[in-house]
Amino acid sequence: MARKRKPLWGLSTKKLGRLPHVFSRVLQLPFPADTDVSVQEAPHCFRFVAESPAAGQVEAHIVEIHPGVTKVVVRETGSTALNDLHLDVWRIRLPESTRPELATAVLAAGELVVTVPKTQDVWAAVPSFCSIATNLHC
Predict the structure, then answer these.
(1) Structural domain span for residue 80
(2) Is 10 a member of any domain?
(3) 134 C-beta neighbours (distance < 10 Å), count
């Protein structure tokens, strides 16, 4: 007669509904993972600022990896390497309150500035004086 296996150390086994390391919204910048990036939150957006050696123009591309899983990839204009697998790049998980499809990227004074707007539901919950107090306008 076959014996039923017991879980190791009395722990129960549970199947994952989805992989824990897959997030629904991610921002990927064209820098090494250890680059210093300033992350600023305002009532209407998140802003990411980093020094950039790039010259020219940049664009924020939206890549749908899987239904419901979106990645914002920032690249120089004209770059065709959207689907290349880059392991050592700067990434951050974006909260559910963001609108990655409206993300913008701009090079200004040697800095890359990426702005990711928030949903309007979040705007209503924040007093209007917050953008003045934080000195960050989106």
Answers:
(1) 25-134
(2) no
(3) 12
